[in-house]
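so my prof wants the structure for this chain in the tokens format not the other one, which i didnt know existed until like an hour ago. anyway here's the sequence
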Amino acid sequence: MKIKMLFSALAFMAGSAVASNNLQPEMIESKYDFQQTVSVLTDTFKSKGMTIFAQIDHQKAAKEDGLEMQPATVIIYGSPKAGTPLMVKDPTLALQLPLKVLITQTDKNRVDVLLNTAEQVVSHSKTAYSEVENNLGKAEKLIKATISK
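here's what i got, hopefully its the right format
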């Protein structure tokens, strides 16, 4: 009986560890420098008919308050045509949409692009991944194809 409980506890903990790893943003190393990565992604989103809702330059904001940090910009982008029906069906998705991508540069001049996958975006909603695979999932693939080394 104790062994059965032990294995059940281990299985639960292993499942929890896997689940928590899935919550980490996907990280892709860019083949471009920092500013080029920001420009290329912005231009790519626009060329696909997506809207750039905001671009947040965290380094600039830090500098304005007398602080220093590595280059870090968040692009908030999406398509109301794709996102609105999802949010009408499941309003909780408004916490995740529009989509966001973080471009940051490490101290070794490596440029990383971080994003939540389509599966992560819907993970805390009533929406199944299969319902977003062909629209939100395409944005993820577009980013990879555009900047991957």
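also thought this was worth mentioning. Residues 25-147 form a domain with the TATA-Binding Protein fold (CATH 3.30.310.70).
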